[in-house]
Amino acid sequence: MQWRSVVLDCPDPPALARFYGDLLSGTVLQDPDWSEVRLGPASPKLAFQRVERYTAPGWPDGQPQQLHLDITVPDLAAASRRAVALGARVVKEPVDVGTGMYQVHLDPAGHPFCFVMER
After folding, report:
1. With 0-12 CB in 10 A as exposed, 13-18 as middle and 19+ as buried, what is 117?
2. What are the DSSP calls for 21-63, one per residue?
3. Handedness of CA 71, 58, 53, 108 (dihedral sign)
């Protein structure tokens, strides 16, 4: 398994990607619903996904932080079985997004993460 990206929910992915791209001197890839900052060939991506009714975190005393991990795997089914054996729960069946497939799980504490199998 390999760490793929950290994904932050937000109302405007391109704007947030430009901010972090500028802040971290990264390369920005923009799309209205999903934008990314690439920090180098060996670094995970920082990604931003649009959420229509986004509520900003009020950390540490209010609305919790909103993010999840994407983890690249060579075999979605095998990775899911292993995660479940370690205590994760499957949230939904795999979803085909054209460039690959992903599947959402919850870790033992309830935090979401996605396994991603790229084509």
Report:
1. middle
2. HHHHTPEEE--SSEEEEE--TTSPEEEEEE-TT-----TTTSS
3. positive
Write out pLDDT tens, residues 47-69: 999 999 988 777 668 777 667 88
CB 34 within 8 A of CB 8: no
Residue ranges making up the domain that contains 112: 73-119
pTM of structure:
0.71
Asked if residue 60 belongs to a domain, the reply is no
CA distance 5 to 24: 15
Whether the per-residue pLDDT at 116 is higher than 70: the answer is: yes
